[in-house]
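Here is a protein:
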Amino acid sequence: MSEPIASKFAGEPDESTDNSVLLEVTEEGVAVLLLNRPQRKNAFNARMILALTEALESLAGAEGVRVVFVRGAGHAFCGGADLDWMRSAAGWTEAENRADALELARMLHALHRLPMLTVALVEGPAFGGGAGLVCACDMAVATADAVFAFSETRLGLTPATISPYVVEAIGPRNARRLFALAGRFDAAEAHRIGMVDEVVATPDDLNARQEALAAEAVTAAPGAVADAKVLVRDVTGRTVDHALMEDTARRIAARRVSPEGREGLAAFFDKRKASWIS
């Protein structure tokens, strides 16, 4: 059951959290999920990943949230793994490392499965897991000076937990090349390979694009958006045969007779705004 979510901050300062993730939701249903460790270029550690997962889970069950923007505080999106966290992991057992990595995998999965549109707004570095975060979103807008990297192989590691989302975003050939070379690439290259959808000149332009996308996102019916995202997942890679045609026909038929479908068509023919547009 969906529950309403009020404007709030996730990870509010208290004895149990370092305030590394902030979540704010407006009355219009626009959520901003802010990575808030600017002194560490918003790099991941275990605590931050847990806070992100909790925030994403709250959004998944929230009523009225129409779009989620993921940003980094300061002039960085996410520098990847925190160095102290990596240093600690080097001394853990394989089982301990597996449990730790699974938390990152769960967080990325929670982001990728959100029912509303998700948008990464990238300024500065987006390295390793930070680049994976970009790929796990539905779309990304970056400033021209943003920098990306999948540098894991230079450390003798692999970008394993982020790989499903990276391969989905940029395709297997680009993923093989970027994983193997492990070098940095700019926003123009990220745009060319499909990792970034738009490149803007300045942080002010990024803010303006956020406002424009928020205004556009709330014109779409929330249930239809959620169903459309599931539709993409379910038809990707399938052969177009009778079973798939039956499946897609069933889905559109169900939408046509749904409350949103009836309201949307009625609003179109009546030349008025649909009820989900404030």
Q: What stands out?
A: Confidence is low (pLDDT under 50) at residues 1-17. The chain has two domains: 3-217, 222-270. The longest strand covers residues 30-35. Residues 136 and 164 are 9 Å apart (CA to CA).
